[in-house]
Design brief:
rod-shaped; Jelly Rolls; 3 helices; 38% strand; alpha+beta
Amino acid sequence: MSPKPVQIIAYILVVIGITGLAWSFQPAKGTSTAELPTGDGYYSYVKVSLWLSGHVEGDFEVTSGGGTVRFFVLDSTQYKDYSYNGVASDSIFTFTGASGSFSEDLPTTSTYYLVVDHGSTTVAQTVDITYKVSGLDIKYLIGGAVLLAIGAVLAFVGLRMKRKAKETTMPPATPIQTTGEVVMFDKKT
């Protein structure tokens, strides 16, 4: 195999890996529409993962169904308790209203949940949630690091293949200089 395709693939992976690493530091923005059906105990959530610490901010608004909703920011332990019994006895952020804004620091590596449930009513409700999470996104960080490492290894392999191919190639023959003289050999009989 020629070293050139290996090197091209390596450089592409290095560029993608660097892009992934850079992207891991960018804030993640999103929107979600929560559909809460008629009845008690229904909730909807947006899941965000964060490495180290970060910040979440955004707003929510009931767009149909009227009434109020309860909005929470929960870490994975709090969410597990909430999903089990429907009670958020402890939360990072809690607000009840037809609309509202939130801005909270997320203290550590975890999966966080933006949860909305029925507040003052049990009729069907639609809630629009807009959010921005600032922090280190582990998926892009790991993906970028892996692609960068694979690209670096392939670049090294491609360079070694190129050097080896250069070493094993015979040098071109040196042309014989002609002097215009004729050398005659005697044939032995």
